[in-house]
Amino acid sequence: MGLNLSDFEKSFYSDKELKEIESGIVAYDKLCTDQEREELEYSQRPFKTFNVYEIFEGEDLDTLMFLNEEISFLVKLREKFIKNKDIKKKCEHLIIVNQVAVDDILEDIKYDRRQIKTA
Amino acid sequence: MTDDKLKRLKEYDGEDKVVTSHELKLKLDSEKDSEVRVISKIPGIDRACEGFQGGELIVISGPTKNGKTLLAQTFTYNFAQQFMFPLWFSFEVPAKQFLNQFKDLPLIYMPQKLKAQAMDWFNDRVQESFLKYHTRVIIIDHLHYLIDLARQKQVSIEIGTIIRQLKTLAVQGDYVIFLLCHTTKGNQEDNLSYNSIRDSSFISQESDSVIMIRRTPELGDNTATARVEFHRRTGVMERFVNLAKIDGYLVETMGDSDE
Asked: Which residues on B lie below 8 Å from A91 (Cβ)?
């Protein structure tokens, strides 16, 4: 595209500054062109099922890690307030809820891995 | 001793200063007791031990293939129901086989990879597990993987050192530590006791309780007897509990268990 300034606008810059601006514009244009080309290539590649399940598996493993961290926090909280029946009971309930969620996630991961294998 | 030193000792006020029994009791009474308490859910063992508390080192022993690991796994399953999820060091059984042995795998914690004969590594893993997961119960299967038998000339003394380190760890960290050990005697010996524990008398001397387990084929298939040899806190001695393996875990059966 190049530098598109009027003579009046150009008068604010030295020759060196004008050259830097122009080379910056050229570099930016090239960057945009490269990104557009990559996006076009990505959108046109054949759809692979296992890629999706790999992404699901990754997300499920992250969720699993988060749930286990929650359980650890609740165990610590339960111990700290062991004499408070209300807090203790609530912590225990939430630990069980998280454990059920862990079981569900484990099933999802097994399913994802089966799909990856058969894809 | 110089006059200077005598003067310093007379005025000494460090945290390890000598005090009267009454002062010490008042101080200890004002401190919080361990909040770490868990029961085995095997009634006979719970009556004998009154549960397990933080700071205790419990030894589980018996002849090979007589149910030590199964008893520890039963404890693990029952502890998990009380929201106490143990840290396991399964040196003897490969991890995959060990995890497959559980009927319904409870939440437990294990090092991804084990390093035998390395107490520093062991201490680091215990601390790591506490910081990450707040684990209070530790199970070690078994003791002889913590020492290098080939290199030690005086195995008994080395074992004594390790036991004392474990007991110190339990007290300082407020952990409950279960340590599995083999005995010297075979299955058929009648006079199995804590004196039969292999290699060192320090094991029973330094631990808070010893539970011996032995199969009892004469009483039926998949049966065993656990005997709480002694318990330092409750004062119990030689309390028998009859067990049977049902649905993958040990449960107490009616029989000649002690009251």
From this structure: 83
CB < 8 Å to A105, chain B: none
Mean pLDDT throughout B41-54?
Answer: 94
C-beta atoms of A75 and B85 within 8 A: yes
- Mean model confidence pLDDT for chain A: 89
Other C-beta atoms closer than 10 Å to the C-beta of A80 total: 14
pTM score: 0.79
Q: CA torsion sign, B65 to B160 to B233 to A89?
A: negative
Spell out which residues of chain B touch residue A82, defining contact as CB-CB under 8 Å.
Answer: 35
- Centroid of chain to Cα B8: 42
Cβ distance of B134 and A99 shorter than 8 Å: no
B243 pLDDT band (50/70/90 cuts)?
very high
Q: Which run of H or of E encompasses B205? A: helix B202-206
Query: CB–CB of B97/B215 below 8 Å?
Result: no
ipTM for the predicted complex: 0.79
pLDDT at B199 over 90: no
State the number of CA atoms in the 13 A half-sphere of B44 facing the CB.
23
* CA dist., res. B154 & res. B202, Å (int): 13
Q: Which of A46, A52, A48 is nearest to A112 (CA)?
A: A52
CB contact B36 to A (< 8 Å): yes
What letter does residue B92 receive in the DSSP assignment? S
Least Cα separation, residue B73 to chain A (angstroms): 19
Residue predicted with more confidence, B206 or B175: B175
Percent of chain B whose predicted confidence (pLDDT) is above 70: 88
